[in-house]
Amino acid sequence: MLQPKISIVVPIYGVEAYLKECVDSILAQTFQDIEVILVDDGSKDNCPQICDEYASKDNRIVVIHQPNGGYSRAVNHGLEVAKAPYIGIVEPDDYIEPKMYELLYNEMIKTNADFVKAGYAEFFPDGIVKVHDCRNYCHIPVGAFHWSECPDFVRFHPSIWTCLYRKELLFNNNIKMTEVSGAAWTDNLFQLQTFLLARSMSYISDSVYHYRRRSHRSADELKNYNTPLDRIEEMNAWLNSQEIQDKNLWGCYYKKILGYFRLVAQVAPFKELSQAKERIQPLVQQMDRNIVLNSHVIALAEKKFYKALLKHPLRTLFRAKYPWCQRRFFFNLKTRKGIFCLQLLGVQISYGKFPELEAWVRLNLKKEK
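Above: the chain's sequence. Below: its structure in token form.
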């Protein structure tokens, strides 16, 4: 096989039920000049046999069988053997649109960017699909741009699987996954490094990647509350080593980690909230107060959460874990132009959207466009 133009890395473990759909969607790409690297991470189901079966039928497929080392090791192993000048990553329980890599490659050639990112769609067991286009949340330049022109990407989901990376960007900057056991959010630092070390990037709004979700609540999918805190510590250390002074970027980053603090509170067992507080407190204290309170991307409710964490960290985490302990959970009335929200005994009736209010039951009379 001659050198392909794109290498696609698929880290695989325990996804027998979804693997064929994933690989079939990759092989069905309109852009055919690809290398598909299936990395079997010591899977105990039939994934190894499925990989070998595909390799016997298509010479574009390379199979690696390795002892179980976790998602990060599987991705890194795939990156190490990739032959193409451009690299993509697809998760084995997801699937992609036929034109995904054609669109990403054409944008890469047109803009000469170091990486190109696309939109994506989350799909849930109940059939609900949520489309994510970053242009719905912030202004993104058309064509190639530097991160300083749109730092907002730092606050979004890493979604590294929607990207096509120039191999030189990764290898020249020694960008790879932090190798830890399991699937432990290591794409956070990977996203940060590719974004900030790229000479330029480009974005297309097409939702060409289908991201499988097991639950509508992120807390249901997080197994260990320490995982986000480990990743925050790694990101903090790397950002400080780069001596980045851009306040807009730090504001976007702080918005993300404030969300992670709230998630940690929801996941941590009640008996371990004090341990979670011990880890969160120094991280909150390291945040630049002026940037947090003056950032235009951090909402008022998030700023209040930050100040509460500084003043009463354990109480604040308890309230984040059990929102029904707050008075406004049982009764709250809000009105402003075009928006109305009444909450009584945990039942919320709204005309418009109030994402900062927790509720057991929601009845939204008018969905936001």
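The longest helix spans residues 247-267.
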